[in-house]
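Deviation from plan, reported transparently: flavin-adenine dinucleotide complex.
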Amino acid sequence: MGNIISPLSVSLKHLRTTKSSYASILDRLNTAPGKPVAAPTASAWQSPPAPLANFCSEEFPTEVDVLIIGSGITACSIAYHLLRQDGPKPRVAIFEARELCSGATGRNGGHIKESPYNEWARLVARFGRIAADEVVRFRMAHLKNLLELADKEGLREVSEAREVETVDVYCEPEAWTKAQQRLREWLDAFPDEKGRWRTWEGADLKTKFNLTTACGCITSTAGSLSPYALITHLYQRLLTTYPTLSLHTNTPVETLQGTPVDPWRRPISPLQPYSVFTFTGSSATIKATHVVHATNGHVTRLVPGLKGKLIAARAQMTSQRLMPEGVGLPGGADRSWSFCWNKGFDYLTIRPDGAYMLGGGFARGPSEGLEAMGNAKDDENTIYEAAYLGGLLPAVFQGTVKGTVIESAWTGTIGFSVDSLPWVGAIPEKVAGGRRRGMGMEWICAGYSGEGMVNAWGCGRGLAVMLRNELYKENASTGVPQAMLITEKRVKKATVEMMVEDYLD
Ligand SMILES: Cc1cc2nc3c(=O)[nH]c(=O)nc-3n(C[C@H](O)[C@H](O)[C@H](O)COP(=O)(O)OP(=O)(O)OC[C@H]3O[C@@H](n4cnc5c(N)ncnc54)[C@H](O)[C@@H]3O)c2cc1C
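Because the crystal trials were delayed, the predicted structure below was used instead.
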């Protein structure tokens, strides 16, 4: 999804001049979203829906070692790495509020793309050089890891997973100058990457990329896939292979209670500390030793201590077809595109069947994106953003793209981390609302700020390792960058104000 921080920061900066509006937007950002709304917009990836879309395992488990809340790529990665690992197999239950994979994973752009040159300097300023390098390398490894996963599981074709040449298009001189400067600095710091990145200007823009209105572009490597197909097929494999896994769709977790305590405040049953109440028409209860919040922008509903640290934001996607009289973009499905502006950017992947999956338009609405922040209602489209996306390609590729038809438009929820890095690990008890625990813990794996395809699989794998280390006293390394781990100190430090001050001042 990309960097929506900068337009947001501009809007907030404006707002600071009118103190009451600023206070009211901060208020909204500090409020937890409701549970996922019923009847969300349908994404093109979900047509047709996966056979498991409304699946429920026959038995409703009453006790498990690990309960995972959510069923997107994060939950799948955690379950996959818990179960595919040699050794004992934990009892795992996955509870999903709506259809399987109906959150951001089933409705995103399918773009596996880290833009290190745009991110790195900001990461260095905030977390230091070592941490920034670690984060960027971790993210860049996702392309290879996801393609290897698709190969290993025989899902390359069905998931449309492939490497593509990616083009960052700059149409505004200021943004283009800044991008070249950032790319130079980043390549100086990562000399092994030289040769994989190239800048283009002048006549090449027209002859090689059909670009008539751009100042310049940068090419490198990225990936494209259908995350919905990959993840729903992986669930199918896991369910048929591991009897200790159960999956329950349309099963929202309504409340979470800690270990019941005796009159002396000692846990009554330290082995099964958490009771989780679900509501599926009638109330049901499950006892779980460990509970994982893999709920993306909805985390703060059950983890109020992260309010104002992890914010839901609504993002717009479209699937478009070229009008027959136009010429397709050069490179077809073997290229992906980002259209980078002074404020934010838009992103395009092209499916093998010719569908143009174009997302973004953030900040093109009347309040420069502010109405999207703190908004987890993916049951409606944002008309301004959809209209902008409908006109984008003919405007950028004037003369070749003669027009497009929007075949479908949908929205989804991003889990936005205010300090820009995901939150991964055992949630400090205070942050989890003071719920008492016995032998188990509450865990989080969320907050990819719109870049889940280069964060979620590795974060989920790391979280599974943490859980196995805890359950079976294994001692494996997690591979998760240190700066992404959740600690009380980091939670305290991360504020919405910090995001606003840091990004544009
Ligand atoms: C429109 C859009 C476009 C995007 N494009 C890209 C892109 O091109 N590239 C990229 O890298 N990233 C992109 N992203 C971001 C990426 O999709 C996400 O970061 C990633 O999918 C998050 O995966 P997840 O498993 O953590 O969360 P999700 O897939 O959102 O899964 C969380 C699940 O939790 C469920 N849930 C919530 N509360 C409860 C509850 N109380 N009980 C039970 N279940 C609950 C939800 O229903 C949901 O299914 C995009 C996001 C959006 C919204």
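The chain has one domain: 5-504. We consider this an acceptable substitute for the interim report.
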